[in-house]
Design a protein that fits this description.
Number of strands: 0
Order of helices and strands: H
Strand content: under 5%
Radius of gyration: 31 Å
Structural class: mainly alpha
Number of helices: 1
């Protein structure tokens, strides 16, 4: 009935290694190296990312408010309409 999924092609000269899940450690040195590394990466990239993002946010809110003001009618132009 044809070949099974795992036997579709024969690949030669390829070596793959694996480690049993029972032999691995799930969180090796998580608290001693992982959290300080996250803090180091965050603190070094924060001052590169935050100023442009803040500038873009302020520009976007300013542009949105100017656009909304431009869409409104000026009441002084319609005072004498009756």
């Amino acid at each position: 009935m044809g070949r099974h999924f795992g036997e579709l092609a024969r690949v030669r000269h390829v070596i793959s290694y694996s480690l049993s899940p029972f032999e691995q450690r799930a969180f090796p040195s998580y608290f001693s190296k992982g959290i300080p590394n996250v803090w180091r990466r965050f603190s070094t990239s924060f001052f590169k990312i935050a100023p442009p993002m803040t500038l873009m946010y302020v520009t976007y809110t300013w542009g949105t408010s100017v656009h909304e003001q431009g869409k409104r009618k000026n009441p002084a132009e319609f005072e004498n309409d009756e």
